[in-house]
Amino acid sequence: MFPNSKRDIAFPFLGSIFLFVVLFGGGLIYQTILGNGSAERLVTTMLVDAIIVIGIQIYIGNTGILSFGHIGFGAIAGYVFAVYAISPEEKLKRIPTAPFGLTETQVSPLLAIIIAVAVTLVFAVIVGIGLARSGAQSGSVAATVITLALLFVTHEVAKSWPELTGGNRGGVSFGIGESLSGRWPILVVLFGSLIVARLYGQSRSGRLAIAAREDNLAARAMGVNPLVQQMVALLLSVAIVAIGSSLRVWQIGSILPDRFFFDYAMLTLVMLIVGGRNSVTGAVLGVAVMTGARELARRLGQNGFEVFGIGLDEPPLDWIFRENLNSVVLGVAMVAFMIWRPTGILEDWEFDQWLYRKIGRGSETKPDRLSELETIPDATFTASDISVSFGGFQALTNAGITAESGEIVGIIGPNGAGKTTFVNVITGMVEPTDGQFSIDGEPLSGKASYQLSRSGLVRTFQNLRLFGALTVRENIETAALVAREHRSDRAVRDVDALMAEAGLWEHRDRRARELDYGNSRRLELARAAAMAPSFMLLDEPTSGMSDSESITMIEQVRHMAATVGAGVIVIDHDLGFITGISDRIYVFDQGKVIAQGTPAEVQANPQVQAAYLGSAAIT
Amino acid sequence: MTELLQNLIDGLGRGSIYALLALGVAVVFGIMHLLNFAHGELITIPGYLTYWAFQNNWSWWTVVPLIIVSAVLTSLLIERIAFSRVRGAKDFTLLLTSFGVHFIVAAGFLLYVGAAVKPYPRPGWFAKTVSAGSLNVEVFDLVVIGVTIVVLAGTTWLLQRTMFGLALRAAASDFDTARLMGVKSDSVIRGAFALSGFLAGIAGVFWIMREGQMTPTAGIPPMLQGVLAALIGGLGSLRGAVLGGLVLGLAEVLLRSWLPVGIQNLTTGFVFVMIALLFIFRPGGLLSVPQVERV
């Protein structure tokens, strides 16, 4: 579950205490200084908002999918809570004809919250399936619209089903009877959600979700099924939002459809975005900053203020400082941050992780280089009679290769030879018209790319696909997390040792997006090796490299493959690199395998020379 | 039978407005991958101008051009002020920018016009019907359908037969390549926003007439219908957007007439559920554009 218990459990726990103390303490100081009831209410509201924003952060932050629907889930929870918690006398006045005999039912607030969470989770599962079907991934537009639609449905139903909800009659909304006395339930839940959110972010599921957020395709190539992790994040997140929303209803003492609609969705989103949606620290910061900014705007808007003797309610300033200024502040903050700092104030910065790096981890010693495996487990990759046609164009005709573990097999061919199509077939991106491929007889054709990598065929990408916001170590850890679960029969190597092996030890805490080109290539190789693959498929590993870098790369690939006992299938158009690295070579031309053999044999083959240099070269 | 026919015409009338809105959303989405949650502001801003114009004794003859022109200008202005600054940003950023723009405009109205409903007169012919046998058809629906056909024909001509249309379609299919081929990104993006504004302006004329009043948040329903219709049709497909609009309009009207009396209020909810089912079984929408995953 957690790769490193100190870093991923103890420090997040410490960090949660810190965030809790700062937020609640700040609120206490504020209300003590002002010493009035409205300040107290503001602080309570802020704490409840914080719970809901932290809940939303678990989904949006870890998956990168923008959701408006969490406030819709909040509406469901809020109404369920109200319907169960309200007293029968009160209900006879508000909803005398409620269905399912709900008018007579009353349970304790705690039980009502539990029911609210359960009911809301049922809806979350349904919506989650819809999101998965829509192919939701970071930034998905369709997914966002689905969540937006949910927000509208809940609002619409709340308005037009008065028998159950009391409808939209202003003033005759639910009165729960007794408002929340004392803040302790809010404080307990707030603290709990901080811990849950932080632990989830460091957990296996959280890590995999974040990897998919950073690069969905690369995550799948590392054996991650993003849809599963997104569902986990959604359910956890909705559960916290549901509890928070119940508390919100309890605290306010009533519920109206508009309380859980556009304005509140906007408020919570702005809080999350401003602080930095990718971090829980950011979410808490955003709640504090936006609560302050809105309160300031509200007070400035309530005329009668004077600054340096100039009345804010006199022209021309009255044009700015008027009532409802706080709602403009929300919109302006949103657009301004999107234009100038879309990742929010803190970006990916997390307090407890910073603290861990500063004081928590002690001295680390660079591990020794990995030794090559003494015995390499046998494995055979076979692709036979692969044909692909796009419309009328025959991209591949009966192409096939075999590769043994411990061996490096090169695939080469001029542009348009069908190399890329072949790679796309054996990585599950293109369905072949005909033919199969397998490892040790286990058929792999037709499997999704995350299943292929779990079966032992792990790829790298021609145009580098790292998890940019994750550090070097976290990139490799992600693959190791998957390997420990799905590749445990193989040599799953230590993450630190792999970093040292790839020459990345000094860069271990840098984010992958900050690495230079050569280091990025090496990180991709190390990440693939961390999957404990039977076969590594390297797609143009030297593209963009100089000749001398390519030569170094040959050694690194060889050694890295030997330490995990993997066979290597390498595709490149650089004849020098392929002949230098490969034990055997397949030459593709015009969709067919035209030659195979050792580098020397292939180089001597007249057909190969013709394909590479033109037929004139033969004569 | 008569009832069905009447519902069909009613649904097509509604659907035509949605189709124009959705087409405007789709044009902008195609060009910069921006799903414009501020599309409804192309109706609220002209809507408040309509209120102002009637306060100053204008008539519908002069208000209609005012609505269309102001919708185009609003669209261009929003592009210039906000969207031009986030061109090429991540989808997440684009979505929230447009959402923020909606919110600023709505809050602006709240601040400077107030939350109160601002009414204005509907045109005299609005409530009239024509009868053919037992069939009673609203003149309004017929006008909407007729105008929409003409506008769609004109838009098709613009997209298929003009240099601008070619540039727009090229840029929508592959923006970078289109630029390399000499399509000016600024002018094609502004052209797309102008077209989007024009379509919203036409839809806005009818929407504003039908509503008879304006509120600060009146932009949300037309935005939502436009965005949903574009999504139902298949994001990225212009034909799909029009189809999606018509389907949405028909679904609303037919459902309202079929649902038992007690739960007619929940029509919108049912429409959303149907849309959700559509997405589950056909995630790409009705006319989905095949998305090739780039490695």
Assign a percent range to the helix content of chain B: over 70%
Mean pLDDT of chain B: 89
Q: From the helix content, strand content and strand pairing of chain B, which structural class follows?
A: mainly alpha
Count of separate structural domains of chain A: 2
How many DSSP helices of chain B? 11
What global shape of chain B is seen? globular
| Largest beta sheet: strand ordering of chain B | 1-4
* Class by alpha and beta content of chain A: alpha/beta
Helix content of chain A: 55-70%
- State the order of secondary-structure elements of chain B, H for helix, E for strand: HHHHEEEHHHHEHHH
Under CATH at level 1, the class of chain B stands as Mainly Alpha
Poorly predicted tracts of residues of chain A: none
- Report the span from N to C terminus of chain B: 54 Å
The most extensive interface, with participating residues per chain, is: A-B, 50 and 47 residues
Low-confidence stretches of chain B: none
The rounded distance between the terminal residues' Cα atoms of chain A is 64 Å
Number of strands of chain A: 12
Q: Give the strand content of chain A.
A: 5-15%
Find the CATH topology of the largest domain in chain A.
Answer: ABC transporter involved in vitamin B12 uptake, BtuC
Q: How many DSSP helices of chain A?
A: 24
CATH topology of chain B: the name is: ABC transporter involved in vitamin B12 uptake, BtuC
Task: Tell me what the structure shows.
The complex is a heterodimer of chains A (619) and B (295). With 619 residues, chain A is α/β, with parallel strands linked by helices. Chain A has 2 domains: 5-355, ABC transporter involved in vitamin B12 uptake, BtuC, CATH 1.10.3470; 380-613, 3-Layer(aba) Sandwich (Rossmann fold), CATH 3.40.50.300. Chain A is built from 24 helices and 12 strands. Chain A has helices spanning 5-34, 37-63, 70-85, 88-94, 109-133, 141-160, 162-165, 184-202, 204-214, 216-221, 226-252, 262-275, 280-301, 325-340, 351-360, 419-426, 449-454, 472-486, 495-501, 517-530, 547-564, 575-581, 599-604, 606-613; strands spanning 306-307, 310-311, 380-390, 393-404, 408-412, 434-439, 442-443, 457-459, 535-539, 567-571, 584-589, 592-597. In chain A, the strands form 3 sheets. A 6-stranded mixed beta sheet of chain A has the order 8-9-10-5-11-12, sandwiched between helices. Chain A has a 4-stranded antiparallel beta sheet with strand order 4-3-6-7, with helices on one face. In chain A, strand 11 (584-589) and strand 12 form a beta hairpin. In chain A, helix 12 packs across helix 13. Chain B has 295 residues and is mainly α. Chain B has a single domain, classed as ABC transporter involved in vitamin B12 uptake, BtuC (Orthogonal Bundle), CATH 1.10.3470. In chain B, the strands form 2 sheets. Chain B has a two-stranded antiparallel ribbon. A two-stranded antiparallel sheet of chain B has the order 2-3. In chain B, a hairpin with a 2-residue loop joins strand 2 and strand 3 (135-138). In chain B, helix 3 (60-81) packs across helix 8 and helix 9 packs across helix 10. Chain B is globular, with a radius of gyration of 19 Å. Classes of the chains: A alpha/beta (619), B mainly alpha (295).
